[in-house]
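Please fill in the sequence for the structure shown.

STRUCTURE ENCODING:
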């Protein structure tokens, strides 16, 4: 997502710290090229570089091309790229068995380009192994038997020749298409580069390519590798020109990935003018909405444009078209469960929360078994199927307390247990000095069925630091969900907007959810709501209101093309708005509200029973069915 540039500040250039990228950024590190203004170079992994430019922390980035397509609205700096016209050596699937004998491949998630390329190559060969995201080290450590690994960059070079079988993905692309492949290129936010700055990147390439032997020798000495092999890699395996053949290869990759709905359609404009006023939209809003309604994957820039500019009712019609295509039977679901907040004692001190109490506060509580039994019995008598159990981060409650509680709940009430947000799971991992998988394994053994999506707020760390600086980072939240999904647990996904976040932040949140869903398919549904302000909380209300809620839900339905269900947030908006939300992309009416403590602490107190939900859904023109947490119908639609 792009914003208007500040031309008075130093130009923030972000490069990838891999050896293969050094020829393109070494000149900036050495101060060997002249630009229109001062510049700063930051080096990071490809995924972090992509995050930086998406969230406005970078002006120009050596960006994985798949990330550029997902972000959208960026300008391609001509002349330079990291590519290959045949074997590349540093992007490969490794295994001890041939590729067609692998049932699992662990994916190094550092670069989305390599992940998408792997999916395209596997699909072209008719292979459908299970794909599991991991760090580079984790991926390679899993190689053995029927498990392989995708490794990229320096990690791949470090294991050359170590495994019995290697599929070089650039060679596989060349075999498939006859074209070169482009892994990364320089992309800029519109308007940040002045006249002549583009030529500086071409000059930087020339500076770096003249020094490949020196760069290879430095890297070889630092990592215990062979300098001659690395020199050959930089000179012979890689292709640094973004010329006509490379552009044809890039266009073919974008077309195939869009056809497979792995990426948005992309044809990035090129940096040509010394000053730009912002992204130029060649496509009309009507055409963009039509594509979205038909299921085209949208870029972040397109999502922001719809959120800011699309007429409300046209946006609703497009989201409704997606709902009808995904759920053609005209059925809206709901669940009979109860939201139980077992403790309000919390150490996080979120500035927007009116519910929590600090440790030692007179109003702090932990529900007793007797209090819980009364609540759960009421759910059973009402025909309920599940408990949503969430609470504060109470340091007095250890993992064994939750295990005992879960076993008791399952034994006495046999209800589904949709319990503990990623924040709570991370809290347990910290105080028990365990990893997340170990905590989840113990909780699942005790009765955990699924994980709620609470605590996501906005998955942009700049926002998270402002509203809840002690909370987990966006990557930590997503990491818990990744582990849970790969264990077979399912979860919901949520977004609370309207604090200090912007439309760009909200869409970035959606992109992060969509990318994880591409990997795991573990999110069953998405819910969004606006911040419920109460005097005394420490965050002033930002954007809110019914129209923004409907607009946000509709854009979420269009962006999250790989999430099956979207729920109406009538708890914050009221049942009447919940009915309208069913025409803005929602296919679920959420939960019967026995009680709710967090939102109601801020003064929002809507509540309806099952009979009222069913009446509301039918009045809105739909049939209605009860469901379970995985959205299986428990009653026949009526």
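FILLED IN BY: designer on duty
SEQUENCE:
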């Amino acid at each position: 997502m792009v914003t208007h540039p500040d031309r008075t500040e130093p130009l923030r250039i972000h490069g990838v710290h891999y050896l293969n990228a050094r020829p393109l950024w070494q000149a900036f590190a050495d101060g060997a090229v002249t630009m229109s203004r001062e510049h700063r170079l930051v080096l990071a992994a490809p995924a972090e570089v992509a995050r930086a430019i998406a969230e406005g922390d970078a002006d120009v980035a050596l960006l994985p091309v798949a990330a550029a397509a997902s972000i959208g609205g960026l300008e391609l700096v001509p002349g330079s790229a990291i590519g290959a016209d045949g074997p590349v050596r540093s992007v490969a699937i490794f295994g001890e068995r041939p590729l067609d004998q692998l049932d699992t491949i662990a994916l190094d998630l550092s670069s989305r380009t390599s992940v998408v390329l792997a999916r395209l190559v596997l699909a072209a060969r008719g292979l459908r192994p299970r794909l599991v995201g991991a760090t580079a080290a984790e991926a390679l450590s899993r190689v053995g038997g029927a498990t392989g690994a995708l490794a990229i960059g320096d990690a791949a070079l470090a294991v050359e020749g170590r495994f019995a079988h290697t599929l070089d993905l650039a060679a596989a692309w060349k075999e498939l298409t006859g074209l070169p492949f482009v892994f990364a290129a320089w992309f800029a936010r519109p308007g940040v580069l002045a006249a002549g700055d583009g030529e500086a990147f071409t000059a930087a390439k020339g500076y770096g390519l003249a020094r490949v032997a020196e760069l290879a020798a430095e890297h070889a000495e630092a990592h215990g590798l062979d300098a001659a092999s690395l020199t050959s890699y930089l000179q012979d395996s890689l292709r640094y020109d973004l010329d006509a053949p490379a552009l044809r290869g890039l266009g073919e990759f974008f077309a195939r990935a869009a056809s497979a709905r792995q990426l948005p359609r992309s044809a990035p404009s090129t940096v040509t003018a010394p000053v730009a006023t912002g992204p130029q939209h060649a496509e009309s809003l009507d055409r963009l909405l039509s594509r979205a309604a038909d299921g085209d994957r949208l870029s972040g820039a397109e999502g922001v444009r719809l959120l800011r500019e699309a007429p409300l009712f046209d946006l609703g019609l497009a989201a409704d078209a997606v709902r009808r295509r995904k759920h053609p039977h005209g059925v809206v679901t709901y669940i009979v469960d109860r939201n139980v907040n077992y403790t309000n004692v919390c150490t996080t001190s979120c500035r927007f929360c009116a519910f929590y109490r600090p440790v030692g506060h007179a109003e702090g509580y932990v529900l007793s078994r007797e209090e819980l039994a009364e609540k759960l019995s009421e759910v059973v008598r009402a025909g309920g199927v599940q408990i949503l159990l969430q609470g504060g981060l109470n340091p007095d409650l250890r993992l064994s307390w939750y295990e005992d509680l879960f076993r008791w709940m399952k034994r006495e009430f046999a209800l589904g247990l949709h319990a503990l947000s990623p924040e709570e799971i991370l809290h347990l991992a910290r105080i028990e000095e365990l990893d997340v998988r170990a905590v989840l394994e113990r909780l699942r053994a005790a009765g955990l069925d699924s994980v709620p999506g609470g605590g996501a707020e906005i998955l942009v760390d700049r926002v998270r630091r402002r509203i809840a600086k002690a909370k987990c980072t966006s990557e930590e939240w997503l990491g818990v969900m990744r582990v849970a999904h790969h264990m077979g647990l399912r979860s919901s996904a949520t977004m609370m907007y309207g604090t200090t976040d912007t439309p760009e932040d909200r869409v970035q949140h959606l992109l992060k959810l969509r990318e994880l869903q591409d990997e795991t398919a573990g999110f069953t549904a998405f819910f969004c709501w606006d911040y419920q302000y109460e005097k005394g909380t420490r965050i002033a209300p930002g954007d809110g209101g019914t129209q923004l809620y409907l607009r946000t839900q509709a854009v979420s339905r269009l962006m999250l093309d790989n999430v099956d269900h979207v729920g109406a947030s009538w708890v914050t908006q009221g049942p009447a708005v919940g009915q309208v939300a069913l025409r803005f992309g929602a296919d679920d009416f959420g939960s019967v509200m026995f009680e709710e403590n967090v939102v109601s602490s801020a003064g929002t107190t809507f509540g309806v029973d099952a009979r009222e939900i069913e009446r509301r859904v039918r009045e809105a023109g739909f049939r209605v069915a009860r469901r379970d947490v995985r959205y299986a119908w428990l009653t026949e639609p009526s």
